[in-house]
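*** Residues and shapes ***
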Amino acid sequence: MINCQECGAEHFPGALFCDMCGAAIHPAAQAHLASAGGPGRFPFVTRGAPVAPAPAVFVTTGVTSDDPGSGVTSRALRVRLPNHQTDFTVSGDLIAVGRADPEAGYVPEIDLTAYGGQARGVSRRHAIIEWIEGGYVIVDQHSSNGTWLNGARLMAGQPYPLPPEANLRFGGLLVQLAMAD
């Protein structure tokens, strides 16, 4: 375990930011914030009141991925793990994110086991990404170490719209997602 130098909270090795105070605890996160001119911490608040995007509100617009004029060409996501130089594509209406559980015969579509998922706090059934009303939403499945979307912690069990490009953190593991071409 490593300790945050600002508040003393313990984190798994490889964690980028402190879950308690938002301080950059990994050298890569510190360098990124320094180059971006940031304050050295993400704008987190206490665990009791996480800051997150508004939950998804579903409005039927008549635009779906099958509509040639919709601008949505497929139900596929490009997955990038920048710290592992790994890219792959997943598709489907329901995409599970987590770690494999060989004893239960469970393998999620985005399996983070080989990328240090366990050491970085990724739960076996961490999150799901679901195609609803013409776009993907992400739902944290009450994971132990949380899910962040573009720097904001998600409330467990709530669907959040997934933008065309997103930085996600599952526990302490950074994953970038983008709609596939």
About this structure: The first strand starts at residue 2 and ends at 3. The domain at 76-179 is CATH 2.60.200.20 (Tumour Suppressor Smad4). The chain is about 5% helix and 30% strand.
